[in-house]
């Protein structure tokens, strides 16, 4: 049900301009180039880390304004082979022409094979992932998944990346980092011992941590209110329904108003995909593939503080797979095992003892991203993230084994952010604003408690977490705060222009393609069951979040065939092609056994996974 009437603003005057509309552009471009070169020399040839992708460095163009429907494309700076960067002006509010305009950043990887079939819009997830980067930095690898006869269009959704206006609540990146430093939002909730959830001492500890959580969320929302005011409603924080309107609008401008919308989205991109096919008339929808499915019904209909229990549905199963694979691999490949084929429960016992010991005594980390300490909540939360990414299980095992033997630096560095301006860091860094951008999207998508009386208390959140620990995942029921920082929407100062809450049973002209690994596959099956004649599901027989978390040539080829017009058989099961703890010899044999084309595809899949991990966590691991 739409909370508002259908949109009135459509692209009326479609003008494609190849000229840069900013008159001072030449000068500005020169300035940006000079700054870029200075950065290049100062930061040792790693400007990408500082600026994000090159498209993001062009602040001169960010202020470009025009009327809705105006678009331009030009060479990215520096140039990327076969890629264009651009901007499109869209209505800030599709229901209110007086609200002004927003400017969406675009990246386009052009079809290399002709005839060209059209454009596919990409969303790498997050929410908060800058989609331009997926097209500009990973366009060539995405083309291996989708096909080289499509233009691949990445865009930074509202409030994100180079799209303007941007979400800004803190006055500087340092203020953002200091605000979260050493809090439960950065470090997760510590459950001092999961062995006795009835302990009153534990209950009190959890309530105290949730009080801190609530106070932080309230403070953050107040800052956003003050720094963005009503702009927050449109700009920084358009909900998913508005992003669907944007895609519809962009597709009309770019391909013409009668051409259908084609889309590929992973993780949060699957939520956007489900909104897309269900919100717009079926006649607008062309090829749509979604991967790593999150449940859109819960997303749109339950307050966000109630979501966490859903994020851990298969966490225990995946934990067991991780430990079993580790012990099968043995200590050289997985140092958490003492010997090959040690019972996985021994590994689990040692890890759990480590979490309990760390709850009593956090581990000092003097020489990490920042001087600090590793908490049990942080370690457990990070394990929950690692479990979703089987490709990096060897990295996870190494970081945990090192922490368990007293050196927590590596593990800690995955969790906490360095201060901006720190000297060249050996560690990946979590994107600024990750929590904020997610909040901005989720708070406009989910229903918010109507009155102060309905606001969840620290006790409510504790009870809910304990329920998740008791009934769904005994080890990770309260540990999703780092990966999925949800909740706190009761303090969010504004509602969006539009919320979409279903129904989710659209009848499409062409089936939507759903891909999901077995852990978890429930949400994929749910969408498939709601659209039995309008979707097909591929189930990948391996762990992880998104089929790309552990590459499968079979899944990838079916996706590519789909975009070439061949709908796979519903319920097809695909194996994976990479083992979780690969040794050099078997890697070599695998590569030898593959055709050149398959090898390239496998490499491409690894590249796409990185793009999605970066969209979600702000860094690649
Ligand atoms: C758990 O804690 C409660 C309250 O302290 C206590 O009554 C109970 O015996 C404990 N259970 C176990 C198995 O230790
Ligand atoms: C701790 O681990 C980090 C990262 O692996 C390493 O750089 C550092 O040298 C180690 N510290 C000690 C005291 O071994
Ligand atoms: C979809 O579900 C809604 C409400 O649940 C129902 O009214 C409608 O008839 C369904 N549409 C289709 C195409 O099945
Ligand atoms: C799906 O198609 C079958 C066979 O044509 C039909 O009987 C059924 O009603 C359809 N279901 C939906 C939900 O449209
Ligand atoms: C499609 O496949 C899934 C997974 O096997 C199954 O649950 C579902 O019932 C199938 N749908 C139809 C319409 O056969």
Automatic annotation (TrEMBL):
The keyword Transcription does not apply. It holds the Pfam family Abhydrolase_1. Residues 487-574 form the Peptidase S33 tripeptidyl aminopeptidase-like C-terminal domain. GO terms for molecular function: hydrolase activity. InterPro entries: AB_hydrolase_1, AB_hydrolase_fold, Pept_S33_TAP-like_C, Serine_prot/Carboxylest_S33. Residues 10-23 have a biased composition (Polar residues). Residues 1-23 are annotated as: Disordered. Residues 120-322 form the AB hydrolase-1 domain. Keywords: Hydrolase. Belongs to the peptidase S33 family. This is AB hydrolase-1 domain-containing protein. It comes from Collybiopsis confluens.
């Amino acid at each position: 049900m739409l909370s508002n009437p259908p949109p009135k603003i459509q692209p009326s005057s479609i003008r494609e301009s190849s000229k840069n509309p900013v008159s001072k552009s030449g000068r500005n471009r020169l300035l940006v180039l000079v700054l870029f070169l200075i950065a290049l020399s100062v930061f040792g040839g790693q400007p990408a880390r500082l600026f994000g992708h090159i498209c993001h460095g062009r602040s001169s163009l960010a202020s470009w304004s025009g009327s809705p429907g105006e678009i331009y494309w030009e060479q990215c700076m520096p140039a990327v082979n076969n890629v264009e960067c651009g901007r499109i002006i869209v209505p800030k509010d599709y229901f209110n022409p007086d609200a002004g305009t927003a400017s969406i950043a675009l990246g386009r990887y052009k079809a290399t094979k002709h005839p060209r079939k059209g454009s596919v819009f990409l969303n790498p997830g997050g929410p908060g992932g800058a989609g331009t980067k997926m097209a500009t930095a990973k366009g060539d690898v995405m083309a291996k998944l989708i096909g080289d006869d499509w233009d691949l269009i990445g865009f930074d959704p509202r409030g994100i990346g180079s799209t303007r206006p941007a979400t800004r609540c803190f006055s500087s990146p340092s203020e953002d980092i200091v605000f979260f430093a050493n809090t439960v939002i950065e470090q997760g909730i510590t459950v001092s011992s999961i062995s006795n959830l009835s302990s009153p001492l534990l209950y009190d500890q959890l309530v105290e941590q949730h009080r801190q959580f609530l106070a932080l969320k309230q403070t953050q929302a107040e800052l956003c209110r003050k720094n963005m005011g009503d702009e927050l409603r449109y700009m920084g924080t358009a909900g998913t329904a508005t992003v669907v309107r944007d895609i519809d609008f962009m597709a009309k401008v770019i391909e013409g108003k009668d051409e259908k919308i084609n889309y590929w989205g992973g993780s949060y991109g699957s939520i956007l995909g489900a909104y897309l096919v269900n919100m717009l008339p079926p006649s607008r929808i062309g090829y749509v593939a979604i991967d790593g499915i999150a449940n859109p019904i819960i997303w749109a209909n339950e307050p966000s503080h109630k979501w966490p229990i859903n994020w851990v549905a298969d966490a225990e199963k995946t934990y067991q797979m991780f430990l079993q694979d580790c012990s099968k691999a043995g200590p050289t490949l997985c140092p958490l095992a003492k010997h090959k084929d040690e019972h996985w429960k021994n590994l689990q016992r040692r890890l759990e003892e480590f979490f309990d010991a760390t709850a009593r005594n956090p581990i000092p980390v003097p020489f990490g991203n920042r001087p600090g300490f590793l908490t049990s909540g942080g370690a457990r939360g990070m394990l929950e993230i690692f479990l979703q990414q089987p490709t990096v299980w060897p990295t996870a095992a190494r970081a945990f084994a090192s922490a368990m033997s007293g050196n927590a630096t590596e593990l800690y560095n995955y969790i906490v952010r360095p201060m901006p301006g720190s000297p060249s860091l050996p560690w990946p860094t979590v994107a600024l604003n990750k929590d904020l951008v997610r909040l901005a999207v989720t708070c406009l998508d989910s229903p918010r408690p109507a009155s102060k009386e309905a606001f969840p208390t620290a006790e409510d959140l504790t009870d809910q977490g304990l329920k998740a620990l008791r009934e769904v995942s005994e080890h990770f029921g309260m540990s999703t705060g780092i990966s999925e920082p949800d909740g706190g929407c009761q303090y969010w100062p504004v509602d969006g222009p539009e919320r979409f809450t279903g129904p989710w049973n659209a009848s499409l002209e062409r089936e939507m393609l759903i891909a999901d690994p077995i852990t978890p596959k429930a949400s994929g099956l749910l969408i498939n069951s709601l659209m039995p004649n309008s979707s097909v599901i591929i189930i990948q027989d391996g762990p992880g979040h998104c089929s790309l978390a552990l590459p499968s040539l079979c899944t990838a080829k079916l996706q590519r065939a789909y975009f070439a017009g061949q709908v796979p058989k519903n319920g097809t099961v695909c194996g994976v092609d990479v083992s979780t703890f690969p040794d050099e010899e078997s890697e070599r044999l695998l590569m030898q056994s593959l055709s050149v084309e398959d090898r390239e595809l496998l490499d491409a899949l690894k590249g796409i996974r990185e793009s999605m991990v970066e969209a979600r966590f702000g860094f690649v691991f």
